[in-house]
Amino acid sequence: MAMRPSIIWTALLLPVLFLADSLLALQPPATCQQKCGSVDMHFPFGIGDGCFLPGFEIECTTGGTPILAGNNNTLAVLNLTVMPRPEAEVMLPIAYNCYNTTSGTSLDWFYGSVGISPAYRISNTSNELIVLGCNTFAYTNSGPGNTNLYSFYTGCVAYCDGEGRAEDGACAGIGCCRVDIPPGLTDNTMTFFASYTASTFFGYTHTNLTYSPCDYAFIVKKNTYDFRVSDLKMDTKTTKPLVLDWAIRNIEDGNKTCAEVKNKPGYACVSDNSECLDSYNSEGYICNCTSGFWGNPYLTGEGGCQDINECDDKWKPYYPCKGVCHNKVGSYGCDCPSGQKAHDDNAYENVCASKFPVEARIALGISLGVFVLIVALLLAFIMLQKRKLDKLFEKNGGEMLKNVNGLSIFTKDVLKKITKDNAEFLGNGSFGNVYKGTLPDNTMVAVKASIKVDEATKEEFVDEVEIQTQMIHKNILKLVGCCLEVEVPVLVYEFAANGSLQDILHRKKDQVLPLDSRLDIAIGSAEGLKYMHSYATHAMRHGDVKPDNILLDDKLTPKIADFGLSKLLKEEYYAKVVVGCMGYIDPVFMKTGLLTQKSDVYSFGAVLLELITGKKNVYDEKLSLIIEYRKVYEKERSGRAMFDNDITTEEDISVLEEMGKLAMDCLKEDLEDRPDMTEVAEQLVMIRRNKKFGKSNNTNPDNIGDITIYNSPTNAEVVSGPTRANISAKVTPSNMDILPSP
Question: Which residues participate in ATP binding (predicted)?
Fold first, then answer.
């Protein structure tokens, strides 16, 4: 049975450190082996002593197979590239976890740890992560950071609700899922979430899954893997092609940039006409030949960067010339023969012709007719474009939306001006990129793509836009308008200057969010969800409540955003595929596919825990905040041990305890035991009021000092001092900040 190392870096069998300051300008002797099997050896790679730079040794097996030397697994090499992009293509073993299908326990596993040399990073642009199985969530992560935490996690869920559900060629979550990987990945180690005790919380089991006895995960070169249902019983010895980026790196005293190593001892870019570039995947640097030269920038002399003869047939596709080509050192020229001339004197792209041909004189006489024809064609083109935009406008529900009150409809040209042609990128939304824009009145907005609309989905899209337009609440991200003259409709929302709660709570480590602000954010978010659930014209459920979807304006007012998973409460909604962020998904929704308003309550409870603990939903590598907090709470009847130290004071302990208790109520497994969002909002307001005025011994919660307020729908009776006076006053959020907003 394969064993998994406790720390990935201890699996590295290559102790060589890439000391850029101590590298010699090594030139391999002519006796070095130039080829192993079908793979050419390009320096800094090489076979045998003196034939490679440290960390780039290749071993050639007796069977003629090249492998990366010094790794704890045999990685066969398929190809080695120095220019224009430094890459090494290898075969990597798959990770797997196989189960006893009778008991559901693990029988055999291998987590894919290969201990790749520090010179390499797994290419994020050329590879993707694939997970196979019928009840699994697998992920990988980067090497340890400065705080002993992994710098990122990435993975996906592969799920089946029965045999025969997976289909050949379909890798979208049923039996197979795929996801891009971020840069900086140093190891192939996988974690199968279904093998942990916490997996039972989500109902994962492999009992009786004879059609899928193992889970598999592997990183593979893009466009090389096509899912087959038979792969659910894949041979565990299978290997897959993988692309590695490589660079010159110094691990001992910090990876060097070009500015730090250029023209200093050990500088690897030794060829004339070579240049240094900072690595595009993690730290270190690479070498390239400058424009007009080609060869090996790591070698001097004839083996290094040499002038390209751009006039040679093999280079002509890359260096056009429609005249007479003549090579120059580092460039080339292209001129017309004597007596000929190219348009704009540009023989590189335009054909040479006689300077004063008879045809030109004839053309001058008919130029007016040609001009008229061109104008006619241009007008026809404009009309066709206008007709195309009109069809898109109609396809996307424009005729039904143009009379919606409060909704601005922008043309495609106006939208380009608002975003300055997508000049300022803000992030990724549910269906595409999000860009910052400015309306003509200088109002800041965020512009994002919506769902693709066709005849089957047009009515649903129009309904949802109308409903979002009608949802006017200070804690709901306001829909300003839309653009329908595009293939995919674009929605324009109000701008949240402070980004998401995820950003300010977990990513901006130098900024501590005080307890008062966290409590206000919790109240505002609860008010927004309560409005969606109860007060909006059409009650909704959000379906994806998490810190990423709680945006904050310049005053830290929370705005519920991203309604990509929202569903109208016209009827019960059962999801065929459970979609959402792991850690926030309601277990009932996970098990049954039934999405309810109480699902939002569960997700909000997870957000409350993050507010009072300052921890991510998954923290300390593999710990679930919900599970760990519940353990502490059930054992000590208090969550104090997990409160955020930055906001924990003796006077605020009771506030944190009350918020933690409310979070536990929201996270109860039984739907009926959870409060609704109205109760949640009211309890949070009561917590804030108690914090603001201090706890009182009075049994009447509406007694504040010597003034007693008797709430009624439209007025309040006020008693002050020894004498009671009846004063009618309308109680509104503007004059009573202790009441919830409507």
Answer: 448
Kindly state the tokens that stand for 194.
């279904």
Q: What is the pLDDT of residue 353?
A: 83
- Residue 379, burial from CB neighbour count under 10 angstroms (0-12, 13-18, 19+): exposed
Model pLDDT for residues 466-495, shown as the tens digit of each residue = 888 888 899 999 999 999 888 889 899 999
Q: Write down the catalytic residue from 187, 215, 245, 544.
A: 544
Q: How far apart are CA 66 and CA 35, in angstroms?
A: 9
pTM of the model: 0.46
Q: Are 262 and 276 in contact (CB under 8 A)?
A: yes
Q: Shortest CA distance to 478 belongs to which of 465, 489, 494? A: 494
- 3 state SS of 20: helix
Kindly state the average pLDDT of the residues 563-584: 56
The full 3-state SS of 199-227, as one line of letters, equals: HHHHCCCCCCCCCCCEEEEEEEECCCCCC
For residue 195, the model assigns a pLDDT of 47
Alpha-carbon gap, residue 284 to 220, rounded angstroms: 24
Confirm whether residue 635 is marked as ligand binding.
no
- What's the distance, CA 220 to chain centroid? 19
User: Does the pLDDT value for residue 198 go beyond 50?
Assistant: no
Q: What is the 3-state secondary structure (H, E, C) of 159-191?
A: ECCCCCCCCCCCCCCECEEEEECCCCCCCCCEE
Q: Where are the alpha helices (DSSP H) in 473-623?
A: 501-502, 515-530, 587-592, 597-613
d(CA 263, CA 30): 26
Q: By three-state DSSP, how is residue 411 classified?
A: coil
Q: What is the DSSP-derived secondary structure letter of residue 137?
A: E
Helix, coil or strand: residue 689: helix
The pLDDT value given to residue 721: 35
Rounded Cα gap, residues 99 and 212, in angstroms: 9
Write phi, then psi, for 244 (nearest 5 degrees): -110, 135
**CB contact set of 78 (below 8 Å; sequence gap of 6+):** 39, 89, 90, 91, 241
**Contact 220/130 with Cβ under 8 angstroms?**
yes
Are the CB atoms for 67 and 61 separated by under 8 Å? Answer: yes
Which residue, among 165, 37, 176, 198, has the nearest Cα to 623 in the 3D structure? Answer: 198
Beta bridge partners, 363, equal none
H or E element that contains 246: strand 239-246
Report pLDDT digits (tens) over 293-334.
999 999 998 889 999 998 988 887 888 998 899 998 989 999
The confidence score (pLDDT) of residue 307 equals 92
Residues 6+ apart with CB under 8 A from 82: 42, 43, 44, 296, 297, 298
Distances (CA, A) of 684 to 89, 383, 608, 687, 734: 56, 58, 11, 5, 18
Is 21 part of the annotated catalytic residue set? no
Alpha-carbon gap, residue 275 to 61, rounded angstroms: 34
CB atoms within 10 A of CB 385: 11
Can you spell out the DSSP letters for 422-458?
TTSEEEE-SSSEEEEEE-TT--EEEEEE-----TTTH
For 158, residues 6+ apart whose C-beta sits below 8 A from its C-beta are: 131, 132, 133, 134, 136, 137, 138, 173, 174, 175, 176, 177, 215
